[in-house]
Amino acid sequence: MSLEFFGHPFSSYTQKVLIALWADGTEFNYRMIEDPANMEELKRHSPYGLFPALLDDGRPVLETSIIIEHLRAHHRGPNDWIPEGETGRRVRFLDRFFDLYVMNNMSKPVFDMIRAEDDRDPFGVQKARGDLRTAYDYLEANLGDGPWAVGEQFTMADCAAAPSLFYADWVEEIGPSRPRLAAYRARLLAHPVVARAVDEGRPFRGYFPLGAPDRD
Ligand SMILES: N[C@@H](CCC(=O)N[C@@H](CS)C(=O)NCC(=O)O)C(=O)O
Q: Does 1 score more than 80 pLDDT?
């Protein structure tokens, strides 16, 4: 039974799954896509070449939430990433919310910056920034007092929240008007496996097209 994990240490979606793997102490072979041979192999399994991807005994598992669900089902560790019942439904909702409305809106201004100037989409970037602020306001009003997204238990929602809020704050600051969300981001960054993900991405900060701020 072998797990091959394709990803990049500076990639937010890679970090989402690494947090789950490391927190569980799950053994895997890390195939960094900096190595062109690993990127080639990833492309054979992932139709759009998106990462991360997991190969479990050669069988591809794609999409971060599904990878975490797969790990929970087949390589279960001490953490229950998606609890049963109402709590699990809340975890799934928040996981979707962080991916779709925080992570993806954060990515839009970042990827726009690496396009040729003529191909840029100022309207789309402005809309993504506005949508990001809407996501922050929603979270400020609807997150509980924690410590984690659904309360005492660290779940898949926190795996999604950590890299998305980490990078989103670089793109569009959460700011002092959203103290609950800012405090949650700070708690996430202080969690040992999240801190490890941030540290392993640190050497690649020069890749951040908007310029990484000198903090975190
Ligand atoms: N919905 C996917 C998103 C994965 C994704 O967008 N990954 C980024 C890296 S953080 C990527 O592969 N970007 C390369 C590209 O868009 O070509 C998931 O949850 O796995």
A: no
Query: Hey, which residues does 29 pair with through a beta bridge?
Result: 4
Residue 31 β-bridge partners: 6
In the prediction, which pLDDT does 37 show?
98
Ligand 1 centre to CA of 198 (Å) is: 18
Residues with CB under 6 A from ligand 1: 11-13, 49-51, 63-64, 99
Instruction: Report the Cα–Cα distance between both ends of the chain, in Å, rounded.
Output: 37
The C-alpha atoms of residue 179 and residue 22 are separated, in whole angstroms, by 29
Q: Which two tokens stand for residue 103?
A: 């992570």
Q: Rounded to an integer, what distance in angstroms lies between the CA atom of residue 150 and that of residue 144?
A: 7
Residue type, 68: I
Cβ-in-10-Å burial (0-12, 13-18, 19+) of 29 comes to exposed
What are the Cα distances from residue 145, in Å, to 45, 70, 95? 40, 29, 17
